[in-house]
Amino acid sequence: MHCPFCRNPDSRVIDSRTSDDGLSIRRRRQCPKCGGRFSTSETASLNVIKRSGVVEPFSRDKVVAGVRKACQGRPVTDPDLAMLAQTVEETIRQTGTSQINANEIGLSILQPLRELDEVAYLRFASVYQAFESLEDFESAIAALRAGTA
């Protein structure tokens, strides 16, 4: 880690603390050259494997953007979407894997979205569960009514 003050390539960790959510570590560092102190944050990397085979870092913003389309015109707020994205990330991280397929992220969105808004859930599910007919929608609605979706 380069010192942000003098660009020295070395620094010494003087304190480490786990964040409140337990997903990152905050480290206080000191530069041995200029004595400047600064903080860094470390998180375990989580990568997404796209359908094309390209690997990119997981982004909560992309989860929110994808779900926002399904929630268009629904009574869902930005804080609701941010909380949903956090829930999805926590669920994925609990699997213990560092790489996940993009389709699995879409599928992991379904349950929290169902709890948030059933209409948005149906819209989103129609894409990620590849609905092909009205019967697919009817069976999804029947499962929602029965509480088994």
TrEMBL record:
<keyword id="KW-0804">Transcription</keyword>
<protein>
    <recommendedName>
        <fullName>Transcriptional repressor NrdR</fullName>
    </recommendedName>
</protein>
<keyword id="KW-0547">Nucleotide-binding</keyword>
<keyword id="KW-0479">Metal-binding</keyword>
<feature type="zinc finger region">
    <location>
        <begin position="3"/>
        <end position="34"/>
    </location>
</feature>
<dbReference type="GO" id="GO:0045892">
    <property type="term" value="P:negative regulation of DNA-templated transcription"/>
</dbReference>
<dbReference type="Pfam" id="PF03477">
    <property type="entry name" value="ATP-cone"/>
</dbReference>
<comment type="function">
    <text>Negatively regulates transcription of bacterial ribonucleotide reductase nrd genes and operons by binding to NrdR-boxes.</text>
</comment>
<keyword id="KW-0863">Zinc-finger</keyword>
<dbReference type="Pfam" id="PF22811">
    <property type="entry name" value="Zn_ribbon_NrdR"/>
</dbReference>
<dbReference type="GO" id="GO:0003677">
    <property type="term" value="F:DNA binding"/>
</dbReference>
<keyword id="KW-0862">Zinc</keyword>
<dbReference type="GO" id="GO:0008270">
    <property type="term" value="F:zinc ion binding"/>
</dbReference>
<keyword id="KW-0238">DNA-binding</keyword>
<dbReference type="GO" id="GO:0005524">
    <property type="term" value="F:ATP binding"/>
</dbReference>
<keyword id="KW-0678">Repressor</keyword>
<keyword id="KW-0805">Transcription regulation</keyword>
<comment type="similarity">
    <text>Belongs to the NrdR family.</text>
</comment>
<dbReference type="InterPro" id="IPR003796">
    <property type="entry name" value="RNR_NrdR-like"/>
</dbReference>
<dbReference type="InterPro" id="IPR055173">
    <property type="entry name" value="NrdR-like_N"/>
</dbReference>
<dbReference type="InterPro" id="IPR005144">
    <property type="entry name" value="ATP-cone_dom"/>
</dbReference>
<feature type="domain" description="ATP-cone">
    <location>
        <begin position="46"/>
        <end position="136"/>
    </location>
</feature>
<keyword id="KW-0067">ATP-binding</keyword>
